[in-house]
Design goal:
Blueprint lengths: L1 E6 L6 H16 L6 E10 L10 E9 L5 E7 L2 H26 L12
Parallel strand pairs: 1-2
Antiparallel strand pairs: 2-3, 3-4
Length: 116
């Protein structure tokens, strides 16, 4: 699973931030690593350095092997909170999508099912 971190010009400390994001993504989504080819993380400061409410945004997209990509976003007061919550949202989304796929395999269908 490749992790690509992109930031806008208003985000400071790119290298350290990229290491923290990669660690969070690996920790939160590592169990899906055999089904994900790449995760793209886009971090931005919506208000361009001005103080304000939830002005830090994280858009996270998972490229799944043989499937359509899944994307989530989260806006928060800090970049840390934004990427942590986006990773959690993506985990829930992948659990739902990939869980449905595994539930279909080997399940009884109405055509093969038992007696009625």
């Amino acid at each position: 699973m490749q992790i690509q971190v992109n930031t806008d010009d208003n985000v400071q400390g790119r290298e350290e931030l990229a290491r923290r994001v990669e660690a969070e993504v690996t920790n939160t989504l590592g169990r899906f690593s055999d089904q994900i080819t790449r995760i793209e993380v886009h971090l931005s400061d919506i208000n361009a350095g001005k103080s304000g409410g939830n002005d830090k945004r994280c858009l996270m997209e998972a490229r799944l092997a043989g499937r359509n990509p899944e994307a989530v976003s989260h806006e928060a007061r800090t970049l840390n909170e934004a990427f942590t919550e986006a990773a959690r949202k993506l985990r829930r989304s992948l659990e739902s999508t990939l869980g449905r796929l595994s539930d279909q395999k080997g399940a009884d269908s109405i055509r093969r099912g038992g007696d009625f």
